[in-house]
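FORM 12-B: Structure-to-Sequence Request
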């Protein structure tokens, strides 16, 4: 049995095999042949709000022919009565075959995994943790447009401090030496040291030159819910705003990703441009999570 807690669990060989399996799954998300999880149960237990992650996990299990039980919000669970994450998971792992869990406290999911008798999947871990399944679907999306074996310029922009999708995608991309990583954020929201690596570039402003020299622009929102100081959020919230005019500066074959939700970083007029790939990216969550669930349950 294996838990999925961190992007560090994926080396290049495992990623290449995973991407190939996810490509095959994407070919037949709705085929009868995908219904390989008959009788299996996925539990989703989310301590924090979610639209894409929870619903794409649930869609993935349903498309695999399995079943879903769900706690979409801790306030309607016995967490509200003071139940520990350990006891919650001890009970859930007697109900379900696999558990996708989002925590509100970094490190919580390691505690869950320590007592679980079924695989725990990290669906977002606290304020400065990871979101490895988002990074798998991000990498899958990138791989649909670009080879990871030839030079690729990836620019992350936004909240690098609390952007847990960045914390997971950066290490996945570092498995491919031809990928060059650049991180742009206000200095208050810089990428934490533990997620940095030699060769990274760190900037505080986005320029025309950067946009012209970017193949993958990965924008994240400034995460209001993480700020203890409201005034600081107000100061930083509009730091980056991408209009259609700005995105048109990018190479014609470049792509613009965002884990979503967006809250003002990308103007809706950008949606009509060929670079806008963020909705396709969200949709890729289904075949990618189908693949992951099927692998964890030894169904592939
Ligand atoms: N990308 C992502 O994690 O979105 P949700 O918070 O809606 O799940």
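FORM 12-B RESPONSE
SEQUENCE OUT:
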């Amino acid at each position: 049995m294996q838990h999925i807690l961190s992007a560090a669990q994926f080396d290049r060989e495992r990623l290449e095999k995973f991407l190939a399996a996810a490509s095959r799954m994407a070919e037949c998300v709705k085929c009868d042949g995908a219904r390989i999880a008959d009788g299996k149960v996925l539990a989703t237990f989310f301590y924090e709000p979610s639209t894409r992650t929870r619903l794409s996990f649930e869609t993935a299990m349903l498309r695999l022919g399995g079943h879903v039980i769900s706690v979409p919000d801790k306030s309607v669970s016995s967490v509200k009565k003071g139940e520990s994450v350990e006891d919650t998971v001890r009970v859930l792992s007697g109900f379900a075959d696999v558990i996708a869990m989002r925590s509100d406290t970094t490190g919580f999911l390691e505690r869950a995994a320590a007592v679980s008798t079924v695989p725990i999947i990290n669906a977002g871990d606290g304020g400065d943790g990871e979101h490895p399944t988002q990074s798998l679907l991000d990498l899958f999306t990138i791989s649909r447009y670009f080879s990871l074996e030839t030079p690729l310029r990836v620019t992350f922009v936004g909240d690098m401090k609390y952007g847990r999708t960045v914390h997971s995608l950066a290490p996945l991309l570092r498995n491919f030496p031809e990928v060059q990583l650049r991180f742009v954020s206000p200095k208050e929201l810089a990428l934490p040291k533990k997620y940095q690596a030699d060769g990274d570039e760190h900037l505080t402003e986005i320029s025309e030159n950067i946009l012209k020299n970017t193949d993958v622009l990965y924008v994240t929102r400034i995460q209001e819910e993480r700020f203890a100081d409201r005034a600081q959020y107000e100061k930083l919230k509009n730091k980056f705003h991408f209009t259609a005019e700005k995105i048109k500066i990018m190479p014609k074959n470049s792509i613009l990703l965002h884990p979503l939700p967006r809250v003002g970083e990308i103007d809706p007029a950008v949606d009509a441009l060929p670079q806008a790939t963020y909705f396709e990216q969200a949709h890729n969550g289904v075949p990618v999570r189908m693949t992951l669930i099927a692998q964890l349950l030894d169904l592939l």
